[in-house]
Amino acid sequence: MPSFDVVSKVDWAEFANAFTQAEREIAQRFDFKDTETTLEHKDKAVVIQSSTEDRAKAAYQVLEEKIIRRKISLKHLEKKPPEKGPKGSIKIPVLIKEGIETEKARQIVKLVKDSKIKAQAAIHEDSVRVSGKKRDDLQAVIQLLKGADSLELDLQFNNFRD
């Protein structure tokens, strides 16, 4: 019985490259001079710190540009509101989301069931496994999920088995 997995993963090597490029650009650009703007990567988060809110937002835009250039979806980023830091500085925490949350997985299962395509979807940890009798049905499910804007996730389809 053919099946595949629906996942939402970040390419961490590409993310590290984008982060390094953003750090380098911030260090070299004239408009960031004397603003004490820094990027800090902690596990699944990035903290942008600067002396002014405008510079922190500009640093976030630089990070976004580098991430886009590396072909990583911005749907993986969750920007939090700016916070006050030490000595009047501003911090912007940015969470990096990976995996499919249970609520979103339920939405995917519901989309597959409501579509009347002859395929079953089941939740497995942070992914959804879709199986069906025909390969064409599974390809129809992939097209359905690619067109579903309500999910707000960057989905990948892997582990396709016949």
**What is the share of helical residues?**
25-40%
The number of distinct structural domains comes to 2
- Low-pLDDT segments: none
Number of helices: 4
Computed Rg: 20 Å
Give the beta-strand count.
9
Could you tell me the mean pLDDT?
A: 90
* Shape descriptor: elongated
CATH-derived architecture of the largest domain: 2-Layer Sandwich
* Helix-strand makeup class: alpha+beta
Taking the sheet with the most strands, its summary is:
5 strands, antiparallel
Distance between the termini: 6 Å
* The CATH C-level class name of the largest domain: Alpha Beta
Reported by name, the CATH topology of the largest domain is: Alpha-Beta Plaits
Percentage of residues in DSSP E strands: 25-35%
CATH homologous superfamily grouping of the largest domain: YajQ-like, domain 2
Taken in chain order, the helices and strands follow as: EHEEHEEEHEEHE
In brief:
The chain is α+β, with helices and mostly antiparallel strands. Helices cover 36% and strands 28% of the residues. It contains four helices and nine strands, in the order E-H-E-E-H-E-E-E-H-E-E-H-E.
Helix-strand layout with pairing:
Blueprint: E1 3-7, H1 12-28, E2 38-42, E3 45-50, H2 53-69, E4 77-79, E5 83-84, E6 90-96, H3 102-114, E7 119-124, E8 127-132, H4 135-146, E9 156-161
Antiparallel strand pairs: 1-8, 1-9, 2-3, 3-6, 4-6, 5-6, 7-8
